[in-house]
């Protein structure tokens, strides 16, 4: 049985196992493999790099079942290998030969390691695939990055909590008993002068607005600068009102 992995991660690593004794009998590497087939007798297998899956390095290799390379063919420049298969036919069953053939030299260049700048050599990598993933040392299992759906759900929960807290604070403010008026409302008494009466009514309205602002301030509401200035002008308005009523 063969166990193999191809692609950027596995790099064509192949292992041959004897299932009768669960024993590994050989290993080899066939990078850039796009096709792997056992021969009908089960004594060898072939790996190939074909077009159009890969446009360069086309060719094939024949391996003994112990992962020993027996034959190799590399396509010339501008020559592409479209497909490869064993010749069909009926082959008699026979026991596998225990004689391992002599291996030929495999001149296929090994895949080079990823480039690292001189300053990063001999130092642990802190590369992260996802923005939410924290940097981790080699050999450590990175924590799973939350999905977009999980992030949205978290934002909704936080917004819901903030909204409930705001509603609760507003409810406490509305349910709090009104504070006693520091300035009793003066009943309107006509002075007989329409001009004075108009000014008195205007001053009473301003004092009423100031009283509302004072209640809001006592309840903990943040007032603006112009509102605070109105509160500070209360004493002057009271003096003016008293003079008009003389």
Could you please describe the fold and organization of this structure?
The chain is an alpha+beta fold and 246 residues long. 29% of the residues lie in helices and 16% in strands. It contains 4 helices and 7 strands; from the N terminus they run E-E-E-E-E-E-E-H-H-H-H. It has helices at residues 148-175, 194-218, 225-232, 234-244; strands at 2-5, 13-18, 23-29, 35-38, 44-49, 59-64, 69-74. The strands form 2 sheets. A 4-stranded antiparallel β-sheet has the order 4-5-6-7, with no helix packed on it. A 3-stranded antiparallel β-sheet has the order 1-2-3, with no helix packed on it. Strand 1 (2-5) and strand 2 (13-18) form a beta hairpin. It starts with a strand and ends with a helix. 8% of the residues are buried.
Q: What are the SSEs and their pairings?
A:
Blueprint: E1 2-5, E2 13-18, E3 23-29, E4 35-38, E5 44-49, E6 59-64, E7 69-74, H1 148-175, H2 194-218, H3 225-232, H4 234-244
Helix pairs in contact: 2-3, 2-4
At a glance:
The protein has 246 residues and is α+β, with helices and mostly antiparallel strands. It is built from four helices and seven strands.
How would you classify the helix and strand content by structural class? alpha+beta
- Give the CA-CA distance, first to last residue: 114 Å
Low-pLDDT runs: none
Biggest sheet record: 4 strands, antiparallel
- Find the count of extended strands (DSSP E, 2+ residues): 7
Let me know the average pLDDT: 80
> Strand percentage, roughly?
15-25%
Strand order of the largest sheet: 4-5-6-7
Keywords: Initiation factor, Protein biosynthesis, Repeat, WD repeat
Protein name: Translation initiation factor beta propellor-like domain-containing protein
GO molecular function, one term: translation initiation factor activity
Domain Translation initiation factor beta propellor-like: 2-76
């Amino acid at each position: 049985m063969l166990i193999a992995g191809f692609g950027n991660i596995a790099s064509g690593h192949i292992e041959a196992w004897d299932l009768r004794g669960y024993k590994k009998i050989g290993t080899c590497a066939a990078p850039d493999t796009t096709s792997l087939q056992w021969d009908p007798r089960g004594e060898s297998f072939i790996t190939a790099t074909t077009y159009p899956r890969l446009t360069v390095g086309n060719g094939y290799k024949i391996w003994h079942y112990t992962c020993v390379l027996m034959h190799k063919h590399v396509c010339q420049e501008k020559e592409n290998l479209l497909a490869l298969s064993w010749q069909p036919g009926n082959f008699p069953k026979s026991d596998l030969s225990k004689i391992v053939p002599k291996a030929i030299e495999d001149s296929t260049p090994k895949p080079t390691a990823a480039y690292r700048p001189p300053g990063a050599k001999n130092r642990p990598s802190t590369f992260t695939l996802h923005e939410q993933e924290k940097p981790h040392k080699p050999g450590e299992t990175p924590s799973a990055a939350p999905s977009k759906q999980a992030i949205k759900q978290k934002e909704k929960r936080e917004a819901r909590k903030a909204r409930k807290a705001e509603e609760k604070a507003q409810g406490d403010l509305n349910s709090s008993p009104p504070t006693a008026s520091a300035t009793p409302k003066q009943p309107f008494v006509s002075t007989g002068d329409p001009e004075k009466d108009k000014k008195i009514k205007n001053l009473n309205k301003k004092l009423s607005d100031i009283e509302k602002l004072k209640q809001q301030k006592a309840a903990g509401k943040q007032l603006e600068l112009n509102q605070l200035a109105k509160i500070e002008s209360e004493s002057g308005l009271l003096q003016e009102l008293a003079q008009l009523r003389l």
